[in-house]
Amino acid sequence: MGKRLFIVFAVIILAACNQDKQAKLGKLISQRDMLNEEIKKLQDEIAKTKGKDKIRTVEISYAEVKKQAFGHYIEVQGKVDGEDNVAVNAKTIGVITDIFVNAGDEVKKGQVLAQIDDQVLRQSVKEVQTQIDFVTDLYNKQKSLWEQKVGSEVQYLSAKTNKEAMENRKATLLEQLGMNKIVSPINGTVEDIPVKVGQSVAPGFPVFRVINFSKAKVVADIAEAFSSKIKKGDDVVIYFPDINKEIIAKINFSSKYINPTNRTFTVEIKLPPDNIEYRANMIAVIKIKDYHSDNAITLPVNIVQADMSSKYVYIIEEKNGNKIAKKQIIKEGQSYNGLVEITGGLKEGDKVVSVGYQNLEDGQAVKY
Predict the structure, then answer these.
(1) Considering Cα of 197, then 188, then 87, then 249, what sign does the dihedral take?
(2) CA separation (Å) from 300 to 75, 356, 360?
(3) Cα–Cα distance, 59 to 41 (Å, whole number)
(4) Is residue 239 a part of any domain in this protein?
(5) Which of 39-43, 226-230, 293-297, 339-343 has the lowest average pLDDT?
(6) Domain that holds residue 182
(7) What pTM was estimated for this model as a whole?
(8) Same domain flag for 45 and 130
(9) I need a surface site. Which of 42, 169, 216, 363 has the fewest CB within 10 A?
(10) How confident is the model over 273-282, as pLDDT tens digits?
(11) What SS3 string covers 149-181?
């Protein structure tokens, strides 16, 4: 009897344990279903967020492509000079005894600027004049006798020759005296006097600089590489930074000679007469037009981007009612003053992204 009770009691306990496990299993399954549902919900939310990232809209600004005139200029630095800019030299060796002008004085052609010591020459002229007076007197007497058929022809010709020789010597001395005067070869202004009274001078030694600014010009040396692009008659823009003035002119002279030392050639532009006060050696920035197009597509240089193989910009297109940025490959031409000419890849009316292009990708949604 006791044994049966033990068995019954064991069966009851075993049944109770199985019910607990079943309940626990059911509870875990329920928790699992709830977790799966929550995981699915989170996955859907993450997927929606990723989708939103993919179609993230970037705010931009754009510029509409229009055709306009475009020119490319070669910029070089030149200087202002007078049409006549002369270094006046001494014609003979000597010591300066007088200077008759000051820097800034207006002078005329042939005006004496300075005197070289000519005391010895003047003394020589006096001596020769004394000899001329003597031989002239002899000549006149011999001539009178010869006309009277008195004396020989040789005596008459000898007196005549001596007289003419002394007169020629005097003429030579007077010419040498003239060389001791330093005169201005042009009308103009005395700009520089590098000598002083008492200083020795010689031929080839600059004593004065005289410049005529009634006709001024700009002179510049240009690299040999541009020799085929620049010619007489080309339009130029000249800017004077010291006086903040800009003028338009034409090339009047383009040298055919290449300087072998620095491989440059010279151009000259005559300046129009106006109220500008030009000064010798004033800096002039010369812009010479070497390319021009009346109907060019241009863009600011900074919005053109580059990768390993090409240059490109972003343009705006309509797609399914949305505004999309499209990567557009372009070809570049000349560039100048912050602009570049676009020779391929764009057409008039295209909308090119000008602000915000740094954050764009091909196909990116945009707004403006």
Answers:
(1) positive
(2) 20, 14, 18
(3) 32
(4) no
(5) 39-43
(6) 90-190
(7) 0.54
(8) no
(9) 42
(10) 766 677 878 9
(11) CCCCHHHHHHHHHHHHHHHHHHHHHHHHHHHCE
User: Measured between alpha carbons, how far is 257 from 224 in angstroms, rounded to an integer?
Assistant: 10
For 232-286, the pLDDT digits (tens) are: 988 899 999 988 888 888 999 999 999 999 999 999 999 887 666 778 789 999 9
Q: Would you say residue 2 has pLDDT above 60?
A: no
Residue 59: both structure tokens together: 């705010």
Q: What does the angle CA 235 – CA 241 – CA 246 come to, to the nearest 5 degrees?
A: 35
Separation between Cα atoms, residue 257 and residue 264, nearest integer Å: 8
Going by C-alpha positions, the residue among 86, 91, 99 that lies closest to residue 195 is 99
The answer to whether the beta carbons of residues 217 and 80 sit under 8 Å apart is: yes
Helix, coil or strand: residue 330: strand
Asked, for residue 106, whether it belongs to a domain, the answer is yes
At residue 30, the pLDDT reads 75
Regarding whether 24 and 61 lie in a shared domain, the answer is no
If you write DSSP's letter for every residue of 200-252 in order, what string do you get?
EE-BT-EEEEEEEEEEEEEEEEEEGGGTTT--TT-EEEEEETTTTEEEEEE--
